[in-house]
Amino acid sequence: MANMSYCxxxxxxxxxxxxxxxxxxxxxxxxxxxxxxxxxDLCMMILDECTDVEIDTHSKITITEYEEEEED
Length: 72
Prior knowledge:
This protein is mainly alpha-helical. Helix content is 60%, strand content 0%. The model has no long low-confidence stretch (mean pLDDT 82).
């Protein structure tokens, strides 16, 4: 199902967080491994295009910290 434009990034962020939690899973099918590679490629493309979004590449936050920021 396609995301509605008014919540596209919110929905995708939640789905991407779920994928991240299982990114190193070893029991993926061949199709899931290909999809994982596509996601990684897309993430790299997104980072390359992020010229107007402030990103701190020197610090990492946990998913819990990210969720807490989202609540504020």
